[in-house]
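Q: What would this complex look like in 3D?
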Amino acid sequence: MIVTTKREFKDLLANIKDYNSFFLIGCSECASLCGTGGEPELEELKEALEKEGKTVTGIFRAKTGCQVLGTKVELKPFKDTIGKTEAIIVMSCGAGTQAAVEIFPDKPVYQSNDTIFLGNMTRYQMFDERCSLCGECILDETGGICPVTACPKGLLNGPCGGTNDGNCEVSQDIKCAWVRIYERLNRIGRLDDMKKTIEPKDWSRGQKPRAMSVRKKEEKKK
Amino acid sequence: MSFSDILNSGKFVVTAEIGPPKGTDIKEMLHHMQVLRGKIDAANITDNQSAVMRICSLAVCKLAMENGLEPVLQMTCRDRNRIGLQSDLLGASVLGIKNVLCMTGDHVSAGDHKQAKPVYDVESVQLLKIVDGLNDGRDMSGNDLKGATDFYQGAVVTPESNPIEPQLIKFGKKVTAGAKFFQTQAVYDMEGFKTFMGHAKKFPVKILAGIVVLKSAGMANFMNKFVPGIKVPQVLIDELKAAGKEKALDTGMDIAARHIKQLKDEAICDGVHIMAIGMEDKVPDIMERAGLL
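A: Here is my prediction, written as structure tokens for the whole assembly.
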């Protein structure tokens, strides 16, 4: 899921200082699980803004905030309210914010969160980054542990000299990705996989901005 | 004689590290070069070591040549992508730099520009393959070069890495990728190093043992605690402590000399790489104490 973190309220206030009335949009997916854009957070921000003398004309938790058309349809009943509101605050990820920008081309849209990474939820509201969306997966060669993500240097052929009793030179809180890969490959009897040299990555596979369509050609929007 | 010729001649080789300064005042560094001239076989010029921004290795390699030293260009993958690395390697080649040490490079979080974007487009094993390709007259995309390079390429290894197996697997990959010589992380436990050499000797490469001069018991304790892959045995720390503050550096130099002598006399490895860290002018003294001058 897309992991988000709340921005400092004072920073949000500084960004929205030119406006007085707001409509808040949260998201039922990732942001709810991260505690940054679910019902409690929507209520909490509403209250905080009102304390600052701002008006909140409405709050709404989108089903999937990054889904542009679906969110647009969901927000139809609020058309008049939003029309009379000065600005929108999105409480999800950067994708959710930009969905709102697309839905409301004439309205200022602000965001209450920073978007940090694609994460696995390891325990309730605890997240780990496991995938960097690089566009060229090498998990089959590395025992299913991604060194592009798990190693701060993204090393592809083994640990650097900074590996430290199984931990990383960058932080003792990080386990060395290549020690993990070594242990995993050893465990599944595939240590020879580690002896193969992995070639430099084709970073062009991750060239931004990326887009894709799985629609059949004839279905494409005219 | 080139550095590769010297290493292949069977002579016990001595290289010393020169860390370029931060800023344009190079008086002290030039003095160090003068002191080392004619004494060491090659000077290894660091590449923004510890991720602290300094004069680039390439420019200092050129200065080393002008001052009568055979330079080894350290190249890390931290600050340049594959275009920058290859371009600098071609530049080094036309300046007459013959030796290159390929390394990954300390992470930016260790240095003085912690907000920098680390590059690591490629890493040490892949960089060795790139150098091999340039020597064959082609870049890493397979394009023909108008004139090939002729580098003697090396790499680094940490004999006291824990666990050691992943480190040894990577060592093997570096050899396959074209590494001809290796410079190790600082070693203090000669018996442990012999175990590592038992493995390394199976490969057709030259090994230079890393020697970091201990300046005090405090420095030894600091390295044990904070520098990955370095283990200073307690007996050496006790020796430094017993020497007292005044004599600690002298004792550290004695320890370095003793280790160098043992490595040479017992033919444990092919030479040493002395990292004096700012005390490059002490290197000849250490070599003398080791019986090398």
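A: To summarize the key features: DSSP finds nine helices and seven strands in chain A. The longest helix of chain A spans residues 39-51.
Q: Very helpful, thank you.
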